Amino acid sequence: MRSKATQGQLCASVANVTSERVREALSGFVRERDWGQFHTPANLAKSISIEAAELLECFQWSDDGDEARVREELADVVTYCTLLAERLGLDLDDIVLEKLAVTSAKYPAERSKGRSAKYDAL
Ligand SMILES: [Mg+2]
Question: Using CA atoms, how far apart are residues 74 and 76, in angstroms rounded to an integer?
Fold first, then answer.
């Protein structure tokens, strides 16, 4: 893929993904088809993994995945993540920020900057 998002663009994109507009669109899509009956937490978690594998497949033989396919598979992953969060009554922004705080404590910037080592090897 050619384009690289800056950190600011990435943050704006994540905020938009979890927007009320997206959640309402997904909710309406599911309701119109009566698919909520199939959206158990286990089924949605499996779907996240399946779609993540499809995303990974885009890069199976090249580090430059086809951008159109990557967009579709990434959207599928985020869709199922959003549906699972809704199903479990979780706010994606809250849980991502909570986990980021945990990860930040495990990887202090002064010890982990520019390093890919696991937290216990810093
Ligand atoms: Mg897919």
Answer: 5
CATH superfamily of 22-106: MazG-like (1.10.287.1080)
Q: Is 63 helix (H, G, I), strand (E, B) or coil?
A: coil
In this predicted model, what pLDDT tens digit does every residue of 34-53 receive, in sequence order?
Answer: 999 999 999 999 999 999 99
How remote is the CA of residue 54 from the centroid of ligand 1, in Å? 6
Ligand 1 geometric centre to CA of 113 (Å): 34
Digit-coded pLDDT (tens) for 59-102: 999 999 999 999 999 999 999 999 999 999 999 989 999 999 99
**Ligand 1 center to residue 79 CA distance, Å?**
10
What would the two tokens of residue 62 be? 């090249």
pTM: 0.82
